[in-house]
Amino acid sequence: MESRGKFLKWVFVLLAVALLGKFSGIAQAASDYPTRPIQLIVAWSAGASEDLRNRSLAPTLEKVLGQPVVVVNKPGAAGTLGLTMVAKAKPDGYILGSASTSPLLFAPHVQKVEFNPLTDLTYIAGTCIQPYGIVVRSDAPWKTFEELSDYVKKNPGKIKYGSFGIGGLAHIYMEAIAKEWNLNWVHVPFKGDAPNMTALLGGHVPVSAASSAYVPHVKAGKMRVLVLLTGKRMAAFPEVPTLKEMGFKLDLRANEVLGLCGPKGLPPEMVTKLENACKQAVESSEFRKAMESLDNEGKFRDSQTITKLIHELYPQIGEKIKELGIKAE
Fold first, then answer.
1. Residue 112 contacts by C-beta under 8 Å, 6 or more apart in sequence?
2. CB-based burial of residue 160 (10 Å sphere; 0-12 exposed, 13-18 middle, 19+ buried)?
3. Which comes out higher in pLDDT, residue 191 or 313?
4. pLDDT reported for residue 160
5. What are phi and psi of 88, to 5 degrees?
6. Domains and CATH numbers, the chain
7. How many angstroms separate the CA atoms of 100 and 252, rounded?
8. For the chain, does the N or the C end have fewer beta carbons within 10 angstroms?
9. What do you get for the CA distance between the two ends of the chain, in Å?
10. pTM above 0.90, yes or no
């Protein structure tokens, strides 16, 4: 019995030493991090706004971290393919991901995904926000959103609107608007905002709900933005009202969920290093100029703030999608 007790004692000692060595190794790795190139997974194709945002962020991250930050495009499954790769990566800080609105807050509620946005990712920082909006061609008869909604009420089912896909922010918000204000319009989904904008310009749909892809067309005088699908007015269009100002009840901060994430379990010291690097990058003149050219606003939010925002929005959006009965085709 005594020998068994001594044996168990040595087992516990060896386990403690092993665990201590493991945690010591992790702490050392976090302290030395990074010592090799970092992959930044972007869940959209090259040239998309999310791709351009991250390619603008990477050079300053490289300067601060002292290692190359290589942007790798992994598009597919409404942006969830790339985030799945990040969620399944080793939590050593060498595979990070672009955290964006639709695959985090919307897609998991309408399609099967292999990660849980609330438990399988570490949110490092928020980097910018973009001005989603409802737009029409510049020659359309509606000058304001009130004029458009009045027309829709008088002509139920006549107006078709385009969006960048089923279950995305634009689609969910447009259907929520329809339910809240008793509007009857018809959704025409496209595979991204490029064809959505082409359809609007070509007269195939008279109205579109879109991400910042519409901004260059507005500046060129080809489109008019009637209202922003945001909680706050945007610097690109300070005169354009938001749905929140009109009394829309759904939380409209989803456009602020743009930033950097990693797999769950990233060591706190590593998160802090990356968070500080993001802060310096976002506040750099180079990044701000790049965001202005993309008609986005550079805005740093720390890990705690962006994590809290996602945890607040995700269940609210899920409830709204369930209420509207929206499912992927």
1. none
2. middle
3. 313
4. 98
5. -90, 0
6. 33-130+258-324 (3.40.190.150), 133-246 (3.40.190.10)
7. 15
8. N
9. 66
10. no
